[in-house]
Amino acid sequence: MGSLPNCPKCNSEYTYEDGSLLVCPECAHEWSVESVSEESEEKITKDAYGNVLNDGDTITVIKDLKVKGSSKVVKVGTKVKGIRLVEGDHDIDCKIDGFGAMQLKSEFVKKA
User: Fold this and answer.
1) Could you give the residue ranges of the DSSP H alpha helices within 20-108?
2) Measuring CA to CA, which of 58, 63, 86, 98 is 20 to 30 A from 77?
3) What is the structure's pLDDT at 83?
4) 19-58 pLDDT tens trace
5) In terms of DSSP bridges, do strands 30-32 and 59-61 run parallel, antiparallel, or are they unpaired?
6) What share of the chain is helix, strand, coil (3-state, %, to 5)?
7) Ordered DSSP codes for 6-54
């Protein structure tokens, strides 16, 4: 079988070509080959207000965030310096004073 990419929506490996489009039989998602190559080149991470985030930026937390496995809470207004962008659901890797290394979602921060 050819080396077609997995479905970007459900990650199914059973994709097939239909004319100029790629189709997923499991979730019925259709996409073009060009859109896959453009997305894979560079993923843009944006904060809650649509500002583009980059490695090394300083951000501010906009919502109280409970720390899983602890009774601590990261308070609104906490500034975090020197972030690092990573792949995944929690797309910001950082160190927060008093908490240590953490991963945050970009939807709960704003660029400072």
Assistant:
1) 33-41
2) 86
3) 96
4) 888 999 998 888 887 765 555 556 789 999 999 999 999 9
5) unpaired
6) 10, 35, 55
7) PPTTT--S--EEETTEEE-TTT--EEEHHHHHHHHH-PPEE-TTSPEE-
What single-letter amino acid sits at 87? E
Place of tokens 């919502």: 63
Burial class (CB in 10 A: 0-12, 13-18, 19+), 110: middle
Block residue for tokens 């501010």: 60
Are the CB atoms for 109 and 61 separated by under 8 Å? Answer: yes
Token couple for 14: 């059973």
111 three-class SS? strand
First CA to last CA distance, the chain: 49
Question: Which has more confidence, 40 or 10?
Answer: 10
